[in-house]
Design a protein that fits this description.
111 residues; mainly alpha; 6 helices; 2 domains; elongated; Arc Repressor Mutant, subunit A
Length: 111
């Protein structure tokens, strides 16, 4: 998986399962994956070592991946969005298209 794809994927998992991580893991993952801070920047901001940052990211990444393996929420979300895209291609009625577009937005936003 390319680095950018990995960042997108981890951000998705963080959105879905982030609340299941420890507070420190959440903060470090958000700093690294959402704000693109380096290990050194995160370490300085949190007054911890770079090794602690690396450890937190590795453990949290494994946790998020394991949650997805068990629960498949990301996979289900992607499948739903693909199905909605197929529906949108075959609908000519503007009102129905608006409803489906709103549904798509809610799924993307996690509502």
């Amino acid at each position: 998986m390319k680095k950018l794809d990995q960042f997108v994927y981890m951000n998705e998992l963080l959105s879905l399962y982030g609340s299941l991580l420890t507070k420190v893991q959440q903060e470090v993952m958000i700093a690294y994956y959402r704000y693109n801070l380096s290990y050194g920047e995160i370490a300085d901001n949190k007054n911890i070592s770079r090794a602690a940052v690396s450890d937190a990211i590795n453990k949290a990444s494994k946790k998020l991946t394991n949650f997805e393996k068990k629960l498949n929420l990301h996979k289900q979300k992607m499948y739903s969005l693909e199905q909605i895209e197929l529906l949108k291609q075959n609908i000519e009625d503007e009102e129905t298209l608006l409803i489906i577009t709103n549904l798509e937005r809610n799924i993307r936003d996690g509502i």
